[in-house]
Design a protein that fits this description.
Largest sheet: 5 strands, mixed
Number of domains: 1
Number of strands: 9
Helix content: 25-40%
CATH topology: Glutaredoxin
Structural class: alpha/beta
Shape: globular
Number of helices: 5
Distance between the termini: 80 Å
CATH class: Alpha Beta
Order of helices and strands: HEEEHEHEEEHEEH
CATH architecture: 3-Layer(aba) Sandwich
Radius of gyration: 22 Å
């Protein structure tokens, strides 16, 4: 009995104390320029008439693209984000300005109480596609564990992230324009 008691006291039982905390090996970090774009797949909130009801970025950029685009501008939006309405105006402006050169624009809707303002999404040449990401899976994959909004991302034809920027500071807009120009020049 003494031997058993000594053995029990010599080894700290697993059930005592707080659980051991281990770092999350899969913790998300924001995507960086120069990296391949993570997957972006989701249901469209505004599917085109007679068109697909889902969006898959790999269908328009990267090696397996069925309908290749020279560049894609992705905007992450939420109605609770103070700067996101300005971001949508900028996306609409850039989409209209660069559409004839092949730029495609996509808004990823992270949700909120208010719907996206349709007037900000309709532009010359058609509406900007809106991908539903109310679960914020795509946002965390692209922007990290705690997505900071607003955020703009430019992806080139090969699936490489060309730029990622907040909005709408002059330097952010300039870097997004430069990335779009660079992607469309190739």
């Amino acid at each position: 009995m003494t031997l058993l008691l000594c053995t029990l006291l010599a080894v700290q039982p697993r059930f005592l104390g707080p659980p051991e905390k281990r770092p999350d090996a899969g913790s998300a970090r924001p995507v960086q320029a120069g990296e391949l774009a993570p997957p972006l797949v989701g249901e469209l909130e505004n599917p085109p008439d007679g068109g697909a009801r889902t969006f898959d970025l790999s269908a328009i950029v990267g090696p397996g693209a069925a309908e290749p685009a020279p560049a894609v501008l992705i905007a992450f939006f939420a109605s609770w984000c103070a700067g996101c309405a300005d971001e949508l105006r900028l996306v609409r402006q850039l989409a209209s300005e660069y559409r004839s050169r092949g730029l495609r624009a996509v808004v990823v809707d992270l949700g909120g109480d208010d719907p996206l303002p349709a007037s900000l999404l309709d532009g010359e040449g058609g509406a900007i596609l809106v991908v539903n990401d109310r679960s914020q899976v795509a946002a965390r994959r692209w922007l990290g564990a705690k997505p900071e909004l607003p955020a703009l991302v430019v992806v080139g034809r090969n699936g490489e992230v060309r730029a990622i920027a907040g909005c709408c500071a002059a330097d952010a807009v300039a870097s997004v324009r430069a990335a779009i120009d660079g992607a469309l020049a190739r």
